[in-house]
Amino acid sequence: MNRVYNFSAGPSQLPEEVLREAADEMLDCNGTGQSVMEMSHRSKAYEPIIKECEALVRELMNIPANYKVLFLQGGASMQFAMVPMNLKKKGKAAYVNTGVWSKKAISEAKKYLDVDVVASSEDKNFNYIPKIEKITGDYDYVHITLNNTIMGTKWAYLPETGDIPLVTDASSCIFSEPLDVSKFGIIYAGAQKNLAPAGVTLVIIREDLIPETLPVENTPTMLQYNIHSENGSMYNTPPCYSIYMMGKVLKWIKANGGAKGMAKRNIEKAELLYNYLDSSNFYHATVEKGSRSLMNVPFLTKYDGDKATEINKKFVTGATAKGLVNLAGHRLVGGMRASIYNAMSLEGVKALIAYMEEFAKEN
Ligand SMILES: *Cc1c(COP(=O)(O)O)cnc(C)c1O
Fold it and tell me: Does any ligand 1 atom lie closer than 6 A to the CB of residue 171?
């Protein structure tokens, strides 16, 4: 069997140990004679699986007692609507526009309330995070995209919002480094980047932000945080298998030093790659120093125009042949993008750099 180094932006690589364990338990999980996929979500066999997953989320993120942990469906994209639908009171929210996912969150929110885009990095094709000291105003919440998967930026600081709840899309950086949950009203993340297979969305929400009744008339039951909260994420059938896999990934994170351990591992990988890019006269990173993501690293070569298109294609084809896959850049940035989530090993990044050096010499 030949495992590749998978640099996909998502769904992405999972730790090999986790996949092996899941494979071992495929036909018979914990002596039940069933796969987790076949279990009733209300059975004695399944209950400890979701409970343990929640306990691990709480432990590893150090979540204060006044926060709920929910396992929902619909991806981060569903949260783009659920957040305004549930948090709307005065009818206005502040958003920072740092790229594609922010824009999608903004356009969805506009269906339910007024949106002020209080800062944006669109002037430079989103290659930096705007500097804003303090956000004030009559806002129901402030929304930021903590790590911008496509543009390769991350918030290295958090804006001051005073009493206004700070809401964040942490889909592509959750558990990549420690996060002070108490600074946020809501943290949400689709699982398929750093946590589990697609299908489950982790939502961490401060209890006082969960409304009894929703301001938007006839909101579907499934879009109400209180319904999921009151029912322990079991109002309907949860994505059982993805939650089981998340539990396994979290155990792997715990065994590897928790969020701090992940940060150490991720900083080492990212520094190696950025240092190489900064010292190269063939490649360069697209993102400004100080705003660079630990997880998604877009880069270009020295060529532009048609020659760039040709070279990028050659790079990706050659990489694939060496077992380094999914390195094509997003069309909005061009070039290449290496997503180096938690599960990517240091060896994987070293293999990528070795290939990049060889390719630069030949081209
Ligand atoms: C992938 C991604 C999304 C979309 O997630 P879905 O689960 O597919 O809805 C949203 N925001 C960010 C930052 C992402 O990386």
Answer: yes
Domain that holds residue 348: 258-362
User: What angle do the packed helices 16-24 and 240-255 form, to 10 degrees?
Assistant: 130
Active site residue 155: no
Q: Are residues 168 and 315 in the same domain?
A: no
- State pLDDT tens for residues 316-332: 999 999 999 999 999 99
How close is the Cα of 217 to the center of ligand 1, in Å?
27
How many whole angstroms separate alpha carbon 308 and alpha carbon 152?
20
pLDDT, one tens digit per residue, over 211-237 is: 998 988 889 999 999 999 999 999 999
Residues 196 and 284 in one domain: no
Whether 101 is a known active-site residue: answer yes
- Confirm whether 169 is a catalytic residue: yes
Residue 54, ligand 1, Cβ within 6 A: no
Dihedral pair phi/psi, residue 94, rounded to 5°: -105, 135
